[in-house]
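Throughout this chapter, every protein is written as a compact record of paired, labelled lines. An example of such a record is reproduced below:
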Amino acid sequence: MPRLSMLKTLTIQAFAACVLLWATQVQALTLPVTELVEERAAAEMGRAIPANGRIDVRLAKGVIHEGEFIQEFWMDQQTGQFIANVVTEHGETQRVWGVAVMTVEVPVPSRRIMPDEIVGPEDLTLVELPLQRVGSFALFDANELVGKQVRRMLVAGRPVPRHSVIPPIIITRGEKVKILLNYGGLQLSARGRAMSDAHAGQELRVVNLSSNKAISAIAAADGIVKVEK
């Protein structure tokens, strides 16, 4: 009998240990509701999420903050408002609501930058903004701004529209330029006048001052254009 009693005791202890382990594992399955909502919101938005975007979830006051999974989910992508039915670790369904806002990190001017200025790294700072405030034409990469010439005034703290900056102008309209012509291995030169502004590599029309004829050329450097034959 003592031996049988010992076996029963060991069996009960082993069963209790399994129950405790199972309970621990079940508890470990609970996650912050913000993470559960972020996952569902990301699935709702799909391809609309930029590479550097993240979803900032804010829950309403008084709702639960942990759960196992979301049973049902509704979201207005325009406002970010959502409602979700969350299943808790006890199997109960609790309704939560709040706002899930897509935010992106974008470079913005740290000061007001005037037209014709060249943007430097020190002129920019990175900030996180709601995607709705950024706009589809804004530049998301600082490398697309540094070294560019400002076309329209840039306001401090605001995303930069793509059309507000251009490559630096190296030829200005009306400027006298040197025309270089490569022809059959020979390099010839002539004086000309630019008919428009141009950045490096851009095609423009110039007037050959010797023949008074307009020709197409490529802006090569400050005051120099090239014609390839």
Notes: The longest helix spans residues 2-28. The chain has a mean pLDDT of 86. The chain has three domains: 31-103, 105-166, 170-228. Residues 31-103 form one domain.
